[in-house]
Amino acid sequence: MSSAVRIEHVSKVYPRQTSLWRRMGAGQVVDGFQALNDVSLDIAQGEFFGLLGPNGAGKTSLIAILAGLSRATTGQVSICGYDVVSQFRASRRALGVVPQELVFDPFFTVRETLRIQSGYFGLRNNDDWIDEILENLGLTSKADDNMRALSGGMKRRVLVAQALVHRPPVIVLDEPTAGVDVDLRRTLWQFISRLNRMGHTILLTTHYLEEAEELCGRIAMLKAGRIVALDTTRALLAKVGGSRLVLHMGASGWPAGKSRALDERLVQRQGNRAVLRLDTSTELESLLAQVRTAGGAIEGIEVLPADLEDAFLNIMHGDSASASLEKAA
Hints:
Layout: E1 3-16, H1 19-24, E2 31-44, E3 48-52, H2 59-66, E4 74-79, E5 82-83, H3 88-93, E6 95-98, H4 110-120, H5 127-136, H6 152-164, E7 170-174, H7 182-197, E8 201-205, H8 209-215, E9 218-223, E10 226-232, H9 233-240, E11 243-249, H10 260-265, E12 266-270, E13 273-278, H11 284-293, E14 298-305, H12 308-317, H13 321-328
Parallel strand pairs: 3-8, 3-9, 6-7, 7-8
Antiparallel strand pairs: 1-2, 1-4, 4-5, 9-10, 11-13, 11-14, 12-13
Helix pairs in contact: 9-12
């Protein structure tokens, strides 16, 4: 299957300049911040692909390079075979980007905004497709409303519509459901999933890991500008294995440092809530006894299956990254 997005050995360094050089108008780089470090990805046509990572991992920098808003320091990027630098117009026409930020012109209605966006791609008489997008995103009743009169959730729907007006084969969604209600999330994912079934390639970044787990066939994880995991969603979940024991502790909280064996099983701790790795159900009583022996007061327990959040935390904070990459290679 041919590539929809190909990223080859991409690095991005944002230069820092001394104040003296800036005053002289020179551009000599004295040092720099490396946002991306030798990133390579090959996303096939028709994939629903997830790009995950903590804040500052390099996701936004990579999307900016895909969209032609920033140039890679080294490496090459192509969209549907078009180089994003030497064939900018063709690559940009093949790509629709839904940005994380709410950016809009307050002087136009929703329909006018989408007509203007169509014009950027040389599209005339695009109203039939605009009407279809408006209907699928629940915006028909707002079509003639001014953008500044819309709620935050409605403005985000318009951003999605803007990315789709030129029918791009590749759609990038950068945190599309950040700060939106459950109804919009459901409406958006139903529509995007339908576009994916029609053959559109979807690249999703999100901090809602349950979305990525449900929607994405493959996932790459970025950490400090490097890919630390790349595999199918199912394979990433299989690497976690077992279940998760969620303990709701009493006022004394988790007995940190009292038992090395317990600390090694600790996956996450937030307030009086502790999550432990549970490899087999037969270990449950033993683990509870160890917690009590260490001085922990348990007020409630839950046993949950491992999910993508567990895999993400293991890879970001553990030694699973190299194994994930070795298998993917």
